[in-house]
Amino acid sequence: MITARAAASFEPVGRSVASARSFVRDTLQGWGFADIVDDAVVLTSELVTNAVVHAGTSADLLCLRSDEGVRIEVADRYPEREIPLQASAINMGSPDREGGRGLQLCAALAGHWGVEYTPTHKTVWFQLDLPARVVGTRAAGPALPADLLPLADGRVRVAVVQIDRTGHITAWNEDAEDLFGYPAEQVTGKPLTDLAAWPHTPGTSTGIAEALQLSRWEGSYGIRAADGRVTPVYASHLRVRDTGGEPSTVCLLVRDHERAVLQTPLRVPASDTGTTSDGQSTDPFEVFIGYPAPDDLDGLLQRTVERARDMLDGDSAFLLLATDDETELEVRASTGLPSARQRFARVPVEAGSGRYGSARMPAVHDDLTAVPGAVPLLNGTGMRSVVTVPLKVEGRLTGSLGVAAEAPGRYSNEEALRLQFAADRIALAVESARLGELERLRRGSLNFLVEASDLLAGTLDRDQTLALMAQMTVPTLATWCAVYTIAHQASEPYLSYVLHEDEELIDGIKSLLSKVPPPDPVPTPGARVWTAPAEVAHQAALRSSMRSLGLSGGPTHQVTPGIGPTLATASAVGGETVVLPLVARNRVIGMLTLGKPTDEHFRQEILELAEDLSRRAALALDNARLYSERTAISQSLQRSLLPPELPTIEGVEVEVIYRAAGEGNEVGGDFYDVFPIRDGAYGFAIGDVCGTGPNAAAVTGLARHALRLLAREGLSGPAVLERLNSAILDEGARSRFLTLLYGEMRPQEDGSAELKVVCAGHPLPLRLRQDGSVEPAAEPQPLLGVIDDLELYEQRVTLDPGDVLLCVTDGVTERREGARMLGDDGLADVLTTCTGLTAGAVAARIMRAVERFASDAPSDDMAILAMRVPGLHKD
């Protein structure tokens, strides 16, 4: 019956032979078959050489352990062979040939061997039987001449020291007095660590104080004797308890050079000798990991757990890495466990439920059912016995390595020491790879945050900012994301945006979250776990499953649509969910929620990156909010400066087109107005304040409202403008000069319209007659806001039926394309083509001509006022 197996593949390169030898040696040493390692290595080396060197193909190596021995198979992809005739001798080649000696060696060294063929592979296998051992013999050495035996005193003394649960000495025998010179009464009640000359076993990471807490321990340390000299000792500790249940530790100590009296023979890797069977120097790290070693952290950790499992003949293995502050351990690799999705799960080291109480020292648990929760990762996995050892670098905890088995009582202190031996050799490499990964993550994080900041700074639209926040986190940081916003402190969080990497699940997650009370808006920085979505999803999935059982007798199509989305949603949000507050200007304005699917967890580096992103996103979101509020206020104020709807004037068509320069501006320095003055009379105006933007818009508001007020007081056009000029000058430093065309219009019974016009520094109005001729309809006069005493006059104009009066601001006539300008003549040319058009069509054609005159967007405000007297209708 096969009780363990280990497999590896090797590329067709020369170094693969050494890698195969190391793999077999490591595997058999781990299984405890040191007696047959040399023969297995020799045979494997020859067979792998035949495959990768002579046949030029990759080699698949398989080691199988059984009760009878070890079977090793080497398969290559060179299946050509000669089928031997029955009863004919097989030619296995000459011993003097460079290659082809594999079968001869198999016949000479293996108890059983054979060759198997498939259309694609050729497999050579051999089996080595375990040597018979004398009953009761654990280990034995050869007979040696007396001069080669280790040197000892006339009598070997074994000190027996008993330590209570607090580490104080309670018993001290005579041999202890002889070895160290202290009488029993002098040391009883003192901590054993007070006598220690160095704090831990050289080459390991376990201190004496820690070793005294283990169930079994063996190792070296020094005891400072009464004369001040240090006596190196080899110790064997056994943890026991008395009839009252109090634990204590019995320590047996001998001089270090007499350690054979106590030392348990260890099945350490052959790399301890520093050379391989072919005499080449080896690296203990490479012997354990294999050659070539993975160049990435994940590959290194996965290879480590697989080798650790095989070395101790376990059913599973796992490796956890410590956070920078050594407060938590994070699952980074596992093998043989029911679910690989526990990756990045975290547990505290020192305190709290489910902690790893033995993370800082080796520990062996014979039966986890007696100490439930001792290793949280194994809860519910069926594993019963486990051995864990720390990974330490320069005394600092960097991780924990464990091997577990389904059967109880599989591991002892010997296996803990062997695993610690391996852990000490890989700890530095793991930490180096981890630091390299962290450096790459930090560089990637900086690039990510720079790009995120650029994107967030590129918009002031609230909805677009929410979308960017979610799209930057999914799928880079999380599988799904939800953004809650808070309008003001008294309002409840509102679910504003949901995104999942699978768009089909977005609606389901949004529906589920709408049934879950939102997370509390806690301003505390950092990510906190939120369990509500996973719990509600689990309950919903359970209810759906129960309903499906109730409908099990019905057609399938009645069940599937009902439970499919719910179960998919439950799986999507069933993993770890965290909430990060969005804090801007000392106020919580929302929450960023990140989630993983079932059994998945966030790694600490991702949470730290998400926290940095949340701070930037919060400020961008608040800026968008402030911008939206101010834009709304600005637009409301600007709209108040615009005139209401144009009045309907019987017998006259009126059309206005207005364009304010600048993004987001509705009102600028140009303005217009058409309003009733008194019965049958209407005032109209079009003006241009110096400049653009809010400052110019303030003067336009003053001018428009003053015009209406003064005109309705019955003042003439020149009087209205003179008083407006005084009001502008009264503004002092805020005043701006103003060009203005103002007029009064009165439709006549014969279909014409009488106009009184004052043109104060403004582009002259143009009159289009029915015959297509165009002429100015007024004369220029001084502009407003410059001098106190103005002498203005009004001019009378009659618009006959079919005539058009066009009034524009200088943004129209000064439209430029390079050195060219539209000008008054260009405007007149366009107007001559408008004969017979309505006022609306005339205004539209003028605007289209202005826009087409240049490719660039207009840089000045523009206003166009067109008034037309329709022709008389004949019966």
Automatic annotation (TrEMBL):
Q: Does the keyword Protein biosynthesis apply?
A: no
Instruction: Alphabetically list the UniProt keywords.
Output: Hydrolase
Classify the source by domain of life. Bacteria
Pfam families referenced in this protein's UniProt entry, alphabetically: GAF_2 (PF13185), GAF_3 (PF13492), HATPase_c_2 (PF13581), PAS (PF00989), SpoIIE (PF07228)
In terms of SMART domains, this protein maps to: GAF, PAS, PP2C_SIG
Mind telling me which SUPFAM superfamilies this protein's record contains? ATPase domain of HSP90 chaperone/DNA topoisomerase II/histidine kinase, GAF domain-like, PP2C-like, PYP-like sensor domain (PAS domain)
| PAS domain segment(s) | 160-190
Q: Which NCBIfam families match?
A: sensory_box
What is the name of this protein?
SpoIIE family protein phosphatase
**Lineage of producing organism:** Bacteria, Bacillati, Actinomycetota, Actinomycetes, Kitasatosporales
